[in-house]
Amino acid sequence: MNNEMTVPSFVLVDDDEDDRLLMRMALAETNSQFPVQEFTNGAELIDYLESDIKNHADNQIHWLIIMDINMPIMSGPDALRKLQQHPLWRRIPVMMMSTSDDPQLVQQLIDLGAKSYVVKPKSYSGLVNSIKTTFEPWLQQQINQLK
């Protein structure tokens, strides 16, 4: 595990390049001080985490994962299950994000270990607002814990 995992960061897991681009643009607009890492599906995220975990099993990972539900190769819920199986990874806050507002789906994801669920905003300004009110405070909390 390298230094990228110990720096508080936004981690976007979404197969839609346009959605990731909009998220990066919205983060820049909010003057976010946090770096952004991106993965196109859950398998890429898990592979990255597994790549060096044996050497750093005692480190904390100061990330906020913002993960889409419907992705090829490994879906968001499947990746969430994998994260919950590892004692270090299960401490990483995961916010699931999708276009659905189905309460049963939301509860299922919370039961799987998601810290929160956010309906993908229908507008760019809604995305900027979500970053300011939901995502940014989570990472700020991580920084405060490091002090």
From TrEMBL:
The keyword Phosphoprotein applies. The modification 4-aspartylphosphate is found at residue 68. It comes from the Bacteria. Signal peptide: none annotated. Residues 9-135 form the Response regulatory domain. GO terms for biological process: phosphorelay signal transduction system. Keywords: Phosphoprotein. PANTHER family: RESPONSE REGULATOR RCP1 (PTHR44520:SF2), RESPONSE REGULATOR RCP1-RELATED (PTHR44520). This is Response regulator. The lineage of its organism: Bacteria, Pseudomonadati, Bacteroidota, Cytophagia, Cytophagales.
